[in-house]
Amino acid sequence: MNETDLFGAAELRQAVLQSWESSPTRFREDANAEEDLRLGGYRDRLLVELAQNAADAAGADGVLRVEFVGRELRVANTGAPLTADGVAGLASLRASAKRAGPTVGRFGVGFAAVLAVCDEPRVVSTSGGVAFSTERTREAAAKLPGPAEELEARKGAVPVLRLPWPVTEEPPAGFATEVRLPLRPEVDADALLAAFTDQAPDLLLALPALTEIRIGEQVWRRVDQDADRVVVHGPVRSDRWLLHRAAGTLSEAALTGLGVEARHATQWQLTWAVPLDDRGTPIPLAEDVLHAPTPTEERLSLPARLLASVPVEPDRRRVAASGASDAVLTFAAECYPSLVGKVEAEHRTMLVPLPGFPLSDVDDKLRQGVNDRLRVAAWLPAADGKVVAPLESRVLEYVSPELVELLRDVVPGLLAADLADARHRRSLHVLEIRRLGAAEIVEAVTGLRRPPGWWYRLYDALTPVEGADPVAREEFGALPVPLADGRTVSGVRDVLLSHRDADPDPAALLSTLDISGLRIAHPEATHPLLEKLGAHPAGPAELLDAPPLAEAVRSSVSDARSGADVQPLAEAVLRLVDSAQPRDWLGALALPDAAGDFRRADELLLPDAELLDVLDADYIGEGAPLSVLDADFAADWSADLLLSIGVLDTFAVHVEEDPADADEGFSDAPQWWAEQEAAQPENWPPARFVAIRDLDLVADDAWPTAIQLLVQHPETLRALREPHSYPTWWIARYALLAGYPPRHWRLPAAEELAGLYDAVPDIGLESVQLQLAGVRAELQIADADDASDLLERLGDPDRGVRAGTALRAHQALADAVSSGVVDAAELDPPDMVRSVSGAVVSTGRAVVLDEPWMLGVLEAPLVIAGGSPDQFDAEALAELLDLPLASEENMMQVADPGRTQRWAEVARVPAACELLGITVPSGEINLHDALRVRTSAGEQRVHWWVDSNGTLHAQRSPDGLARALAWASGAWHERFALAALLADPEATTLLR
After folding, report:
1. How many CA atoms lie within 13 A of 305 on its CB side?
2. What tens digit of pLDDT does each residue of 100-128 get?
3. How far, in Å, CA of 419 to CA of 987, rounded?
4. Strands 394-396 and 434-436: what pairing?
5. What is the DSSP letter of 757?
6. Distance in angstroms (rounded) separating the CA atoms of residues 147 and 24
């Protein structure tokens, strides 16, 4: 070949050969270095390295063309042609023609990448060309003794790119330089072309100096839409990218430790790039590599691509560990928020690196740096239209534009509404942005002063949240509520909701009054949410249930006497009661009376009240228990309404459920309670206490009329008929009928009480009315007073008491002692008592009959009625009367033993028992033709007897035998029937 040597290739070859000859070790080193580059750092980087050289040559608007001519790969580029320095760089394995400036690969060591596919590379340019050849280099080395021996050891492998030869070929028209690479036979041209096709779009982004890459018939062009956006148009698709570029100068300290050539690269530049879809929405990268600016093997997990002039190791696959690398990566992290800020606000969180394991040390450093800068930089869209840093921002837990609009001037740094959407949650969590849930929202609005309409809008915005989140419902219970009186209170519970459409609004009646604790929501703030959270509709009933209103009513009388105007309260309350059921405490409402004072409603009488006819006049008026309602005030309201709050017309009934003790507000109620408890301890206390008011205020001579009033009104009539009625108990003792309490008298029809009690005079009351008042209809002992009165009546010789009546009276007295109604120890024993004969005798001579058989031997005028245990308790009666028992006072014996016979063998006994359903006694009976008993007064004949040993004796007569049989069989009540059957077995008609 006679090529013209324009670049001093011969001199370069001569210098290399001399170095090999003088030092065979240098040959080995060059061969090893080239092999390392070819097989290691620059494998798979052919197009990348050639594109970098093309970019350096182009400076701007460069074009790179790749095509095949037969089996020869040709890569042409526009821009500056080949120079002597460039040839020297190509022929040097350890140096590059690049120095300071932004170039990335102008014929440096990266050219060794061509050896992956070619043994005979050529570089042709408009300024000349050079070629490298494996074969020619081998021939030249073989002529040198040292390298020749090394060739044998290396099986002919040589450092191809150390010896350049000039060539005179021309590049294609329109291009400054072309690299021509005859492919080795084993190289797959189609696979190589496919790899180039994949790399082309990224290279246009990485190398700004290139604007077009052609690979065969396929063309990729980069179009800069503006400073921030580029589009790479390809044969199949167009890739859109959003960019942020930055540049600067590295400090000398950062460059320390780098190689000589790297230390000259004092300028740094970087580009953050994120792909966009057709609508301009970012497409975050899941995994990428660092581009320096062409791809390295430093894997990254950032959503955007980083292209930066980071110092790399000679093979350009890894970042060089240096201060410069750290500095550039730090600059990159600081610039990242600027890229994010260029994205549409709604998509910015897509560029926040999400949690995950770093893919490399560089990835770890970048992720931490990027997130740190994102936290403090202002780039998030705030609700007020500004941007705010994450560390100064807050985001709602719920997606609600309405809520954000209301809170944007309340919560500093509140983010735009759509950032509360779930798709942003992970990104915002990485940025440590505080989320505002229900509790935080309540805290934020607590203490605010806002118009009622603002609060209504807030409740409206919170309604969907409350419906979807049960926890939020609990938290919202603490929301502030504006009140009708101008205050704003915290907490929804106990708030009363006024009605917007009510005319008049019940709440409005009270909202102007100074009622401490009454919380009525402002009508313009009343929202259905408040009721769901625990507020109550402020209808009449709900207002009447409000404790503050009840307290105001209870204190209204004292307030009036302190000079307060309580009439508006009275009028408002009456209007409420007119539409709702009254409450018990309304009786405390202060109303004007006829004397110009204010009294409790339940201490006032209607001007025409029925009670005025029966109450003692001394008890009505100033200083008295009752007064009369002011007539003018009464005329303004219906009588029924006034009565419903406690104003009196007739007697009023008081009911207390589940009482624990007697109500001492009622006369003698504790005494009644104690008596009832003693009489029926198993049923005490009662389920309720029922009383009738003001009975103790009735005039003495007005009781007949008062009783008529009590009976004619259903409420008081029911109170009188209540079991163990306290009103009836009280009236029976303290009312006056014809000058005496009702229980002093008996009903005219109660003949069985004749002699003991006098018939009540005609006072204009019917029998039922008299009985309800306590006039006696039967013999009954209710207390010690009853017992004492009855004993006195029995011992009164002026009273004609029949024997049966006396017997029943004594039985009633014994039962009262036995049951505990009367304590015998608390009563004084009578001086005179009434015997079974009806005679009144001194207690010094009388005894109480305790055994029925003894009646036959005792003197009747001296015996107080007693008898068998199934009749009544003789011992109890004896204790009450302080008399001895008959059995204790007499020593009596049967005169002869009689004839002993078993009951079953006594004639007619089995048949009589069978007819009456009585079991025949299993014992024996001593029968006598004439039964006599010896007493201190002599012998006396009797029908039957039981001696001190319990032995039964009977005279052989139906009467005597019947009594003994009834006693022995425990059927004393059948003694008369047994006597008839024993006298006449055919007398079965007695059983009908």
Report:
1. 24
2. 444 333 345 678 889 989 999 999 999 99
3. 110
4. parallel
5. B
6. 6
Distance between CA 297 and CA 291 in Å, rounded?
9
Q: Are 33 and 94 in contact (CB under 8 A)?
A: yes
DSSP codes of every residue in 553-601: HHTHHHHHHTT---HHHHHHHHHHHTTS---GGGGG-EEEBTTS-EEEG
Tell me which H or E stretch contains 888. helix 886-889
Q: Which two structure tokens, joined as six digits, stand for 815?
A: 């039962």
Q: Mean pLDDT across the chain, nearest whole number?
A: 88
**CA dist 413 to 389, 403, 867, Å?**
8, 14, 102
Structure confidence at residue 96 (pLDDT): 47
Distance CA 269, CA 206 (A): 12
Looking at 593-695, list the stretches that DSSP marks H as alpha helix, in order from N- to C-terminal side. Answer: 631-635, 639-644, 669-679
Structural domain boundaries in the chain: 9-205, 237-376, 561-649, 651-744, 779-888, 891-992
Taking the whole predicted model, whether its pTM rises above 0.70 is answered as no
| 238-249 and 832-834 strand pairing | unpaired
Say whether pLDDT at 221 is over 60.
Answer: yes
Q: Are 237 and 257 in contact (CB under 8 A)?
A: no
Predicted local distance difference test score (pLDDT) of residue 104: 36
pLDDT per residue over 442-491, tens digit each?
999 999 999 999 999 999 999 999 988 888 989 999 999 999 888 899 99
pLDDT tens digit sequence for 255-274: 665 544 455 557 788 999 99
Question: For residues 990 and 975, what is the distance between their CA atoms, to the nearest angstrom?
Answer: 13
- Round to whole Å and give the CA distance between 723 and 469: 55
Q: How far is CA 817 from the centre of its chain?
A: 61
> How many helices and strands in the chain, by DSSP H and E?
36, 42
Distance between CA atoms of residues 146 and 556, nearest Å: 125
What proportion of the chain, given as a percentage, has pLDDT over 70? Answer: 92
pLDDT tens per residue across span 750-779:
999 999 999 999 999 999 999 999 999 999
DSSP state of 307: E
The torsion defined by the Cα of 398, 399, 402 and 403, in degrees rounded to 10, comes to: 20
Give the Å distances, CA to CA, from 683 to 658, 663, 676, 697: 13, 18, 9, 31
Q: Which residues contact 380 (CB under 8 A, 6 or more apart)?
A: 348, 349, 387, 388, 389, 390, 393, 415, 419, 433
Token readout for 588 is 């405390």
CB 599 within 8 A of CB 593: yes
Q: Of 805, 798, 880, nearest to 835 (Cα)?
A: 805
**Domain range 9-205, CATH architecture:** 2-Layer Sandwich (3.30)
Predicted confidence (pLDDT) at residue 23 exceeds the cutoff of 50: yes
Tokens 């033993």 belong to residue = 897
511 phi and psi angles, rounded to 5 deg: -65, -25
Q: Which two tokens stand for residue 28?
A: 């080995």
What pLDDT is stored for residue 29 in this prediction?
A: 85
Q: pLDDT tens across 501-533, in order? A: 555 566 666 767 778 778 888 888 999 999 999
Residue 833: alpha-carbon gap to chain centroid = 77
DSSP conformational letter for 184: P
What is the structure's pLDDT at 260?
Answer: 42
Token pair belonging to 707: 């009783």
DSSP lists the bridge partners of residue 463 as: none
* 388 burial level (CB within 10 Å; 0-12, 13-18, 19+): buried
Q: Rounded CA gap, 914 and 965, in Å? A: 13
